[in-house]
Amino acid sequence: MNKKTVSTISKMKKDGQKITMLTCYDYAMAKLVSSQDIDSLLIGDSLGVVKLGYENTLPVTVDDMIYHTKAVKRGNAQALIVTDMPFMSYEITACEAVRNAARIIKEGGAEAVKIEGGIEILDKVKAILDAKIPVVGHLGLTPQAINKFGGHKVQARQDEAQKKLIEDAKALEKAGVFAIVLEAVPADLGKKLSETLSIPVIGIGAGKDCDGQVLVIDDMLGMFTDFTPKFVKKYANVGETVKEAVKNYIDEVRSGKFPSQENTYK
Ligand code: KIV
Ligand code: NA
């Protein structure tokens, strides 16, 4: 499989091919997922919730993002590696935004960064792009704004909010972002935005007409079950498989069935 780049992702939209993205946080999973021709792996700051057990993504640090990006990078075969910029790593000044994005690229080995927000962070997005770092936007439900939204709710249901979101997306496109993740919005808005923009719109809870889809791997494998948004489809029940395996191990150790002859050195 050929290594996928930002250009691959851009071309896929032009060719009408759906883009596939999954989150990934470690070496072993990166190896498994990238063995299947996935287009992009996202080291999402969702790792704070699904891997570190925080209540939301706000405590995640740039160091956390770098640590997990390095692990994914070592296991990746062909996918484009995109890493989230965590809360407060890009909002304060354009200078800090570039410095943190640069660390994610140089130390982590990511090939692009993803940033939540629209026009209000445009100067930071431009500064990062000027530093030759590709950027993915993120609009709709932006989980780093959880305290502003008052929870994880579907966004842009009203006409006014939809107009604002489209303006944000157009501004990001004009600035030079190469794709936009669109989270938890009505499907008709996902369709409209995908038709309006020439860059790919990668949806998560934004309907079937987006140019691509992304899911959190722990959600779609049934590994993380503390809460499951409506937009998640469970493609496996790995959580149950783990519990079953652990139960069998405990039973066999206690009964003396494990280790048997074949797992024992003479
Ligand atoms: O952090 C994350 O996993 C994300 C995806 C849900 C798009 O940003
Ligand atoms: Na994220």
From TrEMBL:
It holds the Pfam family Pantoate_transf. InterPro entries: Pantoate_hydroxy_MeTrfase (IPR003700), Pyrv/PenolPyrv_kinase-like_dom (IPR015813), Pyrv_kinase-like_dom_sf (IPR040442). It is found in: Cytoplasm. 3-methyl-2-oxobutanoate binds at residues 45-46, 84, 114. The active site is at residue 183. Its EC number is 2.1.2.11. One of its GO terms (cellular component) is cytoplasm. It catalyses: (6R)-5,10-methylene-5,6,7,8-tetrahydrofolate + 3-methyl-2-oxobutanoate + H2O = 2-dehydropantoate + (6S)-5,6,7,8-tetrahydrofolate. One of its GO terms (biological process) is pantothenate biosynthetic process. It comes from the Bacteria. GO terms for molecular function: 3-methyl-2-oxobutanoate hydroxymethyltransferase activity; magnesium ion binding; methyltransferase activity. Mg(2+) binds at residues 45, 84, 116. Its cofactor is Mg(2+). Pathway: Cofactor biosynthesis; (R)-pantothenate biosynthesis; (R)-pantoate from 3-methyl-2-oxobutanoate: step 1/2. Binds 1 Mg(2+) ion per subunit. Keywords: Cytoplasm, Magnesium, Metal-binding, Methyltransferase, Pantothenate biosynthesis, Transferase. Belongs to the PanB family. Homodecamer; pentamer of dimers. Catalyzes the reversible reaction in which hydroxymethyl group from 5,10-methylenetetrahydrofolate is transferred onto alpha-ketoisovalerate to form ketopantoate. This is 3-methyl-2-oxobutanoate hydroxymethyltransferase. It comes from Endomicrobium proavitum.
